[in-house]
């Protein structure tokens, strides 16, 4: 925490500045701050209020409007709303803030309908209009010194919608409508352009509420197959079957929101209905705990039992109740008035009796028990949902029903969240806890929602992982993708718009459900959870202690209570004890609800705590430190940590390392120039160049990185860095353009290296030149450059830290340059046909410590061994080394090596005479190289080999097409060895067809001879010689081949 007086950074728990002694801000990291909330804003006002009071004095005006305003306030508060402001003719209220409510939009709609009803019942007719909008707000915590406050565009849109609403009407935004469409009747009201709102929005009229019975809601929305709950469903079915033998029971299904409690109840209800069993459904309302509408849940259950509604004519309702009640037991006749009174119906028999609340309650409670026992003579099921929202009076009556079920043919299924505990203690009660769905079940559930399109496989896996076994979360994540336009079509038959999709913003429904759980926590537990969320999905105890400033035993107590509430779990890491979030979305919500400013402060504290931890200095911690520094807005520090992470990753995962180096450069984009920043930018751009060839960046993609890095090197007069960059840039040209371009830049690099007089850089640049010549098929020149580099390498000095990058050549490449030279030499010698020298070279290369072998280096040696064994006809040796290359490809995950591995396997299959398999492997290698844009420097060689095996398989027409393509690609890429091979295959094809076109055959042979002279690729000499004698007469003409 920074002192405002002297700007000294203090420990988070300090009350006074340790530098100047001034008292620090009262606010600490453990105190609750303003938070982000998913909420719904409601604005309501009286229509034409000015005209209503135009001729009244102030006192009379107040009396005219105040009853309507008070009625609106009472309705908003009854449904859990918080009044933000009241005016003389209206109010604005917020639902879901300051305390999160998982049904905030529904509560706002219920409040709006209640406002209409209350105002309509006033003695003087008054019309109101209401606007409602849902979204994210910033709200003060409950008990804030400044009172209730909320900010955000949500409030402005709700206010604009109120002005758009017709007199007596309620307008909802599309965002609010999406949240309540399963519970409310609405109708489209067009698109409105609202003042101050950038885009037009769709709006809807609120008509009323849909029936509250769970089964009706499920039938209305349509269902995918039940997944992962069949065992629990069988338990419920067995309870019903047992009840037929007078073994009635109560089963409580307990689970957190979204786990499938209601769906399980619905499935049981449908099964019972198919067996012609009576099913009675009831549900506690989300506003029940407010006690504003006591007994509503029980009243709805009784109305369902007697088949009446709240709006039914009183006489008809009494007749239906009397008929059904006396059918159960004629002795209930004396209890009828009490039941009518409970249901809010006229009961004249009680008008003359003195009311005794306790006696009335006891009599009605016993009546409900007796009704349950009487009804229990017939097998029936009572389903009562969401008991965690039950008011106290209803809870007592539900308990009475539960107690009465023993020995009857009734089964009562109730469901609730773990925050509620059943108040009864009865032997015939069983609790059934639902856990998260298993991996296969949740994946299948997501597949049911999305569809079976193979292109959606990765999305299915990602959503299944993010939802972590919670069915509701999975369904809402799919819905969010559909709403964002990522998925098109209907549920269960979606198609993806683009493979480059992003996980959508956390759906408001999920955020509200989890936010409501978090907001129930006491202040310290909530603050501890939020600190943990900033640290990460898993957070060490020591880091949480350091950031919070709370002693170990006290914070352990806080986390133990959070474990008991199933929000986090203790980790099993012995070396680094700590905790992990019970569900990834709990962490996401706990993190998202904090303001960016508070998160930045916490991230900064977390970074300092990690730096001070024993494990914080390890390379594997560098990415984590970079993440926290970036989130804290400390971009330079983040870039420096990410540099260390990228260097560490370079030996393990080139794709990830490339990503990290790009990010280093991005983090520095707004940093002012300085020596340190320039060095870091130069390093980042240089390393991007270093990985570009293996990760599919084209020369055009790499250009800005090359130009930036070369600019810094030349401005600093650093010829060493300049030399290495020129060679690295050339390597990118070899992968995406022509090998001769690589030679040109590599020669410039050697010249700069000579000028630098640095032996390490001289070795590295000559190694690059060696590779450039090899790829271009200039084998003698490659061997000369290799000789120069290896001689210099034997004599080279220790690393010179004067290089701007602060690294020697091997560190820059990320591997041993000497070993690389050895492997390149072996490949060159094999192509030159110098097999004995190649064998000696390979023996030395294979003696290197294989545990330290770098796949992208060592594969060269095994590729050379495969080619040599192929041309010698040693199938076993070729297969042995081909498997080594496959191992390197698998180990590294590099598509570049995958292409090389398929080439090696194709050569083995071809040597075995299995030309079909060889063709398949070469086709796969080509497809992979072209799709990933890596390994394209051997594209022409792959085509030449493919033409060769296809020709050997007897497919001459196809081979002719391929060989023409091979020659064209080889010339474009200046791959002379591949062109030599292709001309030999082309001539062979002509001769196999009887030399129909002698001139063309002669041309192929002449060019092959010229290329053999230029390249020195004696490995093909015998193949060419076999075609010459007596086949055709070769004209005495000169063919010019560039060298």
UniProtKB/TrEMBL annotation:
Q: Name one GO cellular component term.
A: cytoplasm
Keywords (alphabetical) are: ATP-binding, Nucleotide-binding
Under the heading SMART domains, the entry gives:
CYCc
- A family per Pfam: AAA_16
Query: Gene3D superfamilies this protein is in?
Result: Nucleotide cyclase (3.30.70.1230), Tetratricopeptide repeat domain (1.25.40.10)
Q: Which GO terms describe its molecular function?
A: adenylate cyclase activity; ATP binding
Question: What is the name of this protein?
Answer: Guanylate cyclase domain-containing protein
Please give the CDD domains that the UniProt record associates with this protein.
Answer: CHD
Which BP terms in the Gene Ontology apply to this protein? cyclic nucleotide biosynthetic process; intracellular signal transduction
Domain (Guanylate cyclase): give its ranges: 40-162
Entry-linked InterPro entries? A/G_cyclase (IPR001054), AAA_16 (IPR041664), Nucleotide_cyclase (IPR029787), P-loop_NTPase (IPR027417), TPR-like_helical_dom_sf (IPR011990)
